[in-house]
Amino acid sequence: MSETYIQTRILSPSKLLLEKKTTSIQVPGAFGYLGFLYGHVDLVTPLAVGMLTLETKGEAPTSFFVTGGYVEYHNNEATIFVDFVERPEDIDLSRAKQAEDRALERLQNSKKEAVDVRRALASLERAKARQKLRHVAATH
User: What is this structure's pTM?
Assistant: First the structure.
């Protein structure tokens, strides 16, 4: 039986970040995490903040923090367009924790002063996702 794989590309607004053959992909979809295996139905869907994970047989999974974009899957080719991407080793945990603390403080003060709650919640979500990815990567 021949090997089946997904030709996967990750693109930022400015460049091709990664191109490789993968056996599975997990993306943070707008309505929850979504997985792709060889033979998946063609699909275009938006991405949310979260962890993008690529797996290739015989290799450790590769994960990235992303803050949106979209994925296009067609004929066993995945093109992942990301607004922002960060590798786990580039995440500064103390900075992410400080961002979480600032967002929580803003939300707690929202009853006393004018606060953009949507922006504070988005900041909190990004800070928590960064910390989670960093911790997950450290255990692998």
Answer: 0.80
Among all chains, which residue has been given the structure tokens 């995440």? 91
Name the token pair of 105: 């403080």
Give yes or no for a contact between 35 and 23, defined as CB atoms under 8 angstroms apart: no
- Give the number of C-alpha atoms closer than 13 A to the C-alpha of residue 1, restricted to the C-beta side: 3
Q: Report which secondary-structure segment, H or E, holds 133.
A: helix 117-139
User: H/E element holding 26?
Assistant: strand 24-29
How many Cβ atoms from other residues are within 10 Å of residue 63's Cβ? 19
Cα–Cα separations (whole angstroms), residue 15 to 30, 36, 62: 23, 23, 19
CATH superfamily assigned to domain 6-86: F0F1 ATP synthase delta/epsilon subunit, N-terminal (2.60.15.10)
**CATH code given to domain 88-139:** 1.20.5
Using one digit for the tens of pLDDT, what is the confidence trace for 14-56?
Answer: 899 999 999 999 999 989 999 999 999 999 999 999 999 999 9
Distance CA 97, CA 127 (A): 7
